[in-house]
Amino acid sequence: MELKNRYRNTESMVGLGNPSFAAAKEAGLLDLAVHNTERGTLALPDGREFINTCSCSYLGLDSHPAVLQGAIDVLRREGTLCMSISRLRVRLADLDHLEEELSRRWRARTIVTNSASSASAGLLPLIASGHLLPDGQKPILVFDKSAHFSMNLIKPICADETHVITAPHNDIDFLEDLCRKHARVAYVADGFYSMGGVAIVHELFRLQERYGLFLYFDDSHSLSLYGEAGEGYVRAAMKGELNERTIIIGSLGKGFGTAGGAVMLGPGHHADLVGRFAGPLGWSQSLSIPAIGASLASARLHGGEELHARQRRLRENVRYFDERVATRTVGEDFPIKVIDVGPEAMAVERSRQLMERGFYASAVFFPIVPKGRAGLRIILRSNLTHEDLRRLCDALVELAVPGT
Ligand SMILES: *Cc1c(COP(=O)(O)O)cnc(C)c1O
Asked: In which residue ranges of the chain is pLDDT below 70?
């Protein structure tokens, strides 16, 4: 049996992907060093300004005055940037306050991590080993084919613990078949996928009820923008308490507007186990102190009218864009739009032309998307003004990008 590259092929990733990165750099689209003008634009060293239409800070909370003030206040009060000791041993009291606030608002025991990626790196091996399953027995572990890179990265480590399978995207029959054949199955997926589409949560909950399917969701792209308290698409779709067969994680560096990651655990889970054995979650860096203060301020905005107003503004912007530009995710209530361009060089050229018109939209190509299916990625935000959005759509029409 060929034992190499069963879960990852770095040679093909670098070999096939690097020429496109080189072309994007040549076109002046990478390594942009900017400063924030606080007028909704970013400025380059030569004075040119552009609007970033590729930020995942969907609700603009990253520059909310209360969020900025939260970072400043805690930094002044504590007089240190980090404690540089495992949170398991010593942690800032405000980190506990932040977790209490999020747990209350999202109705699930919530642990804050340095990033969503480190949460997956820490948790997935403990799921593979069975330690986070209710009965402590090893499941077979199934990754959705479209699961985010940050989870796929951990596959080989999980495969050292248990049998790992890659399932076709959103294939409920494939999963049900596995549930019939195996006593314990755990499934790893995104909530909102970064290239569009969502997990088929209701069908998955049905398999959970019927067979005890364990579910691990990375809902980074919908935290804050979805749900009454910004609890995200998957949590909002679950009634009542988070059950002990579901874990939801997500990044706090996107819609939430600060930094770090969050893990929502069900009642039966051993938070202590996670603190002690989930690798990077217990090493010497916990979330930096200004990020804790900023996150506490952002958490307090979650569930209030201001969050709802921003969620509505975002949806209005998505709807307006959908009216002007047809993409795969038209009508999907999803702020990431990918315009299919095709050849990699063409995507880079479109991105360059758009930059000349004052908008940064990233060219996406392999390994971000499949080979030969390159495109332009545009990310909508609640704090893009209607006028700027109109000018962006006009520029896309002028460039005759597909869909306009
Ligand atoms: C952005 C993203 C991540 C990475 O989040 P970090 O907090 O930066 O680690 C992980 N998963 C998904 C689905 C993402 O979209």
From this structure: 1-3
For residue 116, CA distances in Å to 190, 254, 373 come to 12, 10, 27
Which residue ranges have their beta carbon within 6 Å of ligand 1?
A: 115-117, 148, 150, 190, 194, 218, 220-221, 251, 253, 261
Q: Which residues pair with 63 in a beta bridge?
A: none
| Residue ranges making up the domain that contains 312 | 18-52+305-398
pLDDT score recorded for residue 7: 87
Same domain, 103 and 155: yes
Within this chain, do residues 164 and 278 fall inside the same structural domain, yes or no?
Answer: yes
The predicted structure's pLDDT at residue 1: 54
For residue 198, the 8-state DSSP code is B
80 and 172 part of one domain: yes
pLDDT at 2: 64
Q: Is the same domain home to 159 and 172?
A: yes
pLDDT of residue 369: 87
Q: Measured between alpha carbons, how far apart are the two ends of the chain, in Å?
A: 49
Whether 232 and 371 map to the same domain: the answer is no
For a pocket test of ligand 1, which of 143, 218, 233, 377 has the largest count of ligand atoms closer than 8 A to its C-beta?
A: 218
Relative to the CA of 114, which ligand 1 atom is closest? 7
